[in-house]
TrEMBL record, chain A:
InterPro entries: AAA+_ATPase, ABC_Ni/Peptide_Import, ABC_transporter-like_ATP-bd, ABC_transporter-like_CS, Oligopep_ABC_C, P-loop_NTPase
GO cellular component, one term: plasma membrane
Keywords assigned: ATP-binding, Cell membrane, Membrane, Nucleotide-binding, Transport
NCBIfam families the UniProt entry points to: oligo_HPY
Organism of this sequence: Actinorhabdospora filicis
Domain ABC transporter: start-end pairs: 6-260
Matches recorded under PROSITE patterns: ABC_TRANSPORTER_1, ABC_TRANSPORTER_2
SMART domains: AAA (SM00382)
Any matching Pfam family: ABC_tran
Family: Belongs to the ABC transporter superfamily.
Subcellular localization: Cell membrane
Major localization class: membrane
GO molecular function, one term: ATP binding
Name of the protein in question: Dipeptide/oligopeptide/nickel ABC transporter ATP-binding protein
UniProtKB/TrEMBL annotation, chain B:
Keyword Secreted attributed: no
PANTHER family noted in UniProt: ABC TRANSPORTER, ATP-BINDING PROTEIN, TRANSPORT ATP-BINDING PROTEIN
Xref: InterPro entries: AAA+_ATPase, ABC_transp_ATP-bind, ABC_transporter-like_ATP-bd, ABC_transporter-like_CS, Oligopep_ABC_C, P-loop_NTPase
Compositional bias of kind Basic and acidic residues: 269-281
Residue ranges constituting the ABC transporter domain according to the UniProt record: 14-264
Keywords assigned: ATP-binding, Nucleotide-binding, Transport
NCBIfam families (alphabetical): oligo_HPY
Start and end residues of each stretch annotated as Disordered: 264-294
Protein name per Swiss-Prot or TrEMBL: Dipeptide/oligopeptide/nickel ABC transporter ATP-binding protein
One biological process term in Gene Ontology: transmembrane transport
Organism field: Actinorhabdospora filicis
Superkingdom to which the source organism belongs: Bacteria
UniProt similarity note: Belongs to the ABC transporter superfamily.
């Protein structure tokens, strides 16, 4: 897992132009190891979807990439600069090398085409010259992989349940054996039972096929269970980036801690939790210092004027508080009973 | 969140017995019905929160709408303080609404975007308390906003919904419900549309109001962990039927019904011991037009017996005073 497959550095994205621009993503650097499951966590509007779309150049206008670099290292040792690739090469690389499962993906299927046909379409577009029978066989195999009987090939999307449609979308993303699968809130619209089935299937497939996953969600407790590493975003920046178990056991950034404290636990003592005070930031008018400072229980003078950089060795965090400092009295975890 | 002693029965405000709702659908020439809610019994007591937990399509929102008299029930009755409720319009219906108020899921859709907070709250006060003088009204408006922690009130009164954040909007809709002076709040997924970091703030506010105003609250959610956090009693629904009900802590820590077990095992839980990820059941919820005979969960149930396929289990006494609709808890069972 040491060798990165995707390297994002200094990526910045604006929505809008000139003075009206909202800086949705600022100077984001992230690397994804081969075979790694990277969780991208944060509240709505923090830029996590923007990051996924910018990295694959799928941003709709007025989204504009204003700086940075996205490098993709293929299995053969080739390096692609995704932001500077000519359109036709980019089109070939998307889906083939990097596949995306969009938010609300179960509604992205074409309602008037049979799902089998939609699966073979992808393969026919990227692998022209291969006989259709081969594609059909592969489509059958893919449906089997995601736990849908192959005899559902002639079904229309409306004949499948939401969970099945979502699994068809995952099958589609895996159709060309990509090395990176980006999943943008793939299970948010689903029930917990279905979500669990899909996540387990995904983890099993990852072990089997060896692709890397970027899993975007606001549900940190789900990420802690399934991800190898978690990057937490706030107001367009990454504020903490560390192995999942360490984030859970010992979060360093107060925002991460607040986010973890926002999910009532299913086990252990019942205690009063408070979430995070205040409201998520308005990207159009951010404070000059740390964007989280107005909501942070530990903010001090320095936080208001100066912005902390993401730093640290293996465990990155963007906070002026000492990494091993005594910040135990965290809001939201004071036992009450 | 101390354990409250079991409240005496005069604390019961709203109760439902055998509540059933079938929505008619037409398939070809035959008339059929979606059996959305089947014979649901529910009791709401003052000063306590009941959580109704279930997957989407399990009928939990329909139950809330039936209790709010927004849908006519197919069968069963709702009693407010022991009196059967039947009015669906007119003065008696308004009197009922004054007592039973709803909070909806989406605060972006449930507040009229062209009106200010002042207007939205004034409407609620004027409709339900006719003849308020202007100074009384002003005082009440400020009081409502203070109750939901939107202080100072002057800062919020003349705002439009789009000028408020999601959490603030949901607080305004709670204030609007409180404006009627209700004794029952039906909260249909009140936090699931809000940002994660502010959900608990709204839940804590509702908890505070429950105690302060001695309200009976029905909290509808799909998130069983938040039910454990927020509610005194948890009721689990599956495919339109109640499968388990009892003390929240008991239901979540020691689930008795196989479906509750499935729900708990599936919920994200970072504390779960590693490797213990065995999901006890597969499959999907059944069609409610032609629900399976017997127990509606039997096609997915790992412990299904012959009897489950033909006979629907009634609510049986389970461990710790819980009601569990499962034949596993039938003590007179001929094995």
């Amino acid at each position: 897992m040491n060798q990165p497959v995707l390297e994002i550095s200094g990526l910045s994205v604006d929505y809008g132009y000139h003075d009206d621009a909202v800086h949705a993503l600022r100077d984001v650097s992230l690397s994804l190891g081969r075979g790694e499951v990277l969780g991208l966590a944060g509240e709505s509007g923090c830029g996590k979807s923007t990051l996924a779309y910018a990295a694959t150049r799928l941003l709709p206008p007025p989204g504009l990439i204003t700086g940075g670099e996205v490098l993709f290292h293929s299995r053969t040792g080739e390096t692609l600069d995704l932001l500077r690739l000519p359109d036709d090469e980019l089109r070939a690389a998307r889906w083939d090398e990097i596949a995306i499962v969009f938010q609300g993906a179960m509604n992205s299927l074409n309602p008037v085409r049979r799902v089998g046909r939609q699966l073979t379409d992808v393969m026919a577009a990227h692998r022209p010259g291969v006989p259709m029978s081969v594609h059909k066989g592969r489509a059958r195999e893919l449906l089997g992989l995601v736990g849908i009987p192959a005899d559902r090939m002639p079904a229309y999307p409306h004949q499948l349940s939401g969970g099945q449609r979502q699994r068809v979308m995952i099958a589609m993303a895996l159709a060309l054996d990509p090395q990176v699968v980006i999943m943008d809130e793939p299970t948010t619209a689903l029930d917990v039972v279905t979500q669990r089935q899909i996540v387990e299937r995904l983890i099993a497939l990852r072990a089997e096929l060896g692709f890397s996953v970027v899993f975007i969600t606001h549900d940190v407790s789900l990420l802690i269970e399934m991800a190898d590493r978690i990057a937490v975003m706030y107001a367009g920046r990454i504020v903490e980036d560390a192995p999942a178990a360490e984030i859970y056991a010992e979060p360093r950034h107060p925002y991460t801690r607040g986010l973890l404290g926002s999910f009532p636990p299913l086990r252990g003592p019942r205690r009063a939790l408070s979430g995070i005070p205040g409201a998520p930031p308005d990207l159009a008018s951010l404070p000059p210092g740390c964007a989280f400072a107005p909501r942070c229980p530990h903010a001090f003078a320095r936080c208001e004027g100066e912005r902390p950089e993401l730093s640290g060795g293996r465990r990155l965090s963007a906070c002026f508080l000492p990494a091993d400092g005594p910040v135990a009295a965290v809001q939201g975890v004071a036992p009450v009973e | 969140m101390a354990e409250t002693p079991p409240p005496p029965d005069d604390r019961v405000v709203l109760s439902a017995r055998g509540l059933t709702k079938h929505f008619p659908v037409r398939k070809g020439l035959r008339r059929k019905a979606v059996r959305a809610v089947e014979s649901v019994d529910l009791t709401l007591r003052r000063g306590s929160v009941v959580a109704l937990v279930g997957e989407s399509g399990s009928g939990k929102s329909t139950v809330a709408r039936l209790l709010a008299m927004l849908h006519p029930a197919t069968a069963g009755e709702v009693r407010l303080r022991g009196e059967p409720v039947s009015a669906r319009f007119g003065r008696r219906f308004r009197a009922y609404c004054r007592q039973v108020q709803m909070i909806f899921q989406d605060p972006f859709a449930s507040l009229n975007p062209v009106h200010t907070v002042r207007y939205i709250l004034t409407r609620s006060l004027r409709i339900h308390h006719a003849g308020l003088s202007t100074p009384e009204l002003t005082a009440r408006l400020a009081g409502l906003l203070e109750q939901v922690h939107l202080t100072p009130p002057e800062r919020y009164l003349d705002k439009f919904p789009h000028e408020l954040s999601g959490g603030q909007r949901q607080r305004v809709s709670i204030a609007r419900a409180l404006g009627a002076g209700p004794s029952v709040l039906l909260a249909d997924e009140p936090v699931s549309m809000l940002d994660v970091s502010i959900r608990l703030g709204v839940l804590n506010l509702l908890r505070e109001l429950t105690t302060e105003l001695d309200l009976a609250v029905l909290y509808i959610t799909h998130d069983i962990a938040s039910a454990r956090y927020f509610a005194d009693t948890t009721v689990v629904m599956y495919a339109g039927e109640i499968v388990e009900s009892g003390d929240s802590e008991a239901v979540t820590q020691d689930p008795a019904h196989p479906y509750t077990r499935l729900l708990i095992a599936s919920a994200p839980d970072p504390d779960r011991p590693g490797g213990d990820r065995e999901i006890p059941a597969r499959g999907e919820p059944p069609s409610l037009i032609t629900p399976p005979p017997g127990c509606r969960f039997h096609p997915r149930c790992p412990q299904a017996m012959e009897r489950c396929r033909t006979q629907a289990p009634p609510a049986l006494p389970g461990p710790g005073g819980r009601a569990v609709a499962c034949w596993l808890y039938d003590t007179e069972a001929p094995e």
